[in-house]
Amino acid sequence: MKLKNPRSQSDLSIKKNYHVLEVGPGNYPHKRSNVLVERFIDINYHRSGDLKVLGNQTLIEADGHALPFKEKEFDYVICSHVLEHVDDPAKFLAEQFRVAPRGYLETPSIIGEYLMPKESHKWVLQEIDNKIVMYEKDKINFHTSPDLGYIFLNYLPKNSIGFKIMDITHANLTRVNYEWENEIEVLINPDSDYYKQFFTQPLNEKLCKILYPEKKLSTELLDAGKAFGSVILSVINSRLLKQ
User: Fold this and answer.
1) Which residues does the UniProt record annotate as the domain Methyltransferase type (predicted)?
2) Nearest to 213 by CA among 168, 162, 161, 172
3) Which domain holds residue 31?
């Protein structure tokens, strides 16, 4: 069951007493994670930098397709930018549903994959009608060029307040950000013209309204105001830390 689309990873529903697992943390582990599971300890092919472990965290070398934990050993599981890499998504996700009753999934969206493509990404994903839909790139002839990743991952987040506000108010534009409880419906390579059109055709107004439903003006203004306040606060804190 879907709980919500968090604005960011600081917006996750993790209580103070939760025992948290993170699968595939790479070089950006969540500060709230207690246990990290990483399959590739010494290889950076699937990540953008060296593996990182914070002081309060335990690292275990294991495959996410076969987690070495008991059923419901954790209260929450985080899996950020890993699902697009895996060999067997159904088995990989089943393991997360087995070891925790709730969790958070994040991957690039269709737009994110076009703008910031990675050779190591086997799958392209999108949330459609509250379901996670994913296709193997090779099966739908999904190609990307050029790679604009530096602009959207590095330059604009560092230099543009406007971009930061947009990224908060439209967090699901370049990412699938999906908090769940129990299990969720994931469609893998569905043989359906309805789902395929989102991945293989230009996004017209009808498809955009399905992916990104229109909001009331009052909601848009409230969200923009909250995002602006959050960004300004983060900028001030960042400047203070540098002093």
Assistant:
1) 57-103
2) 172
3) 2-149+171-203
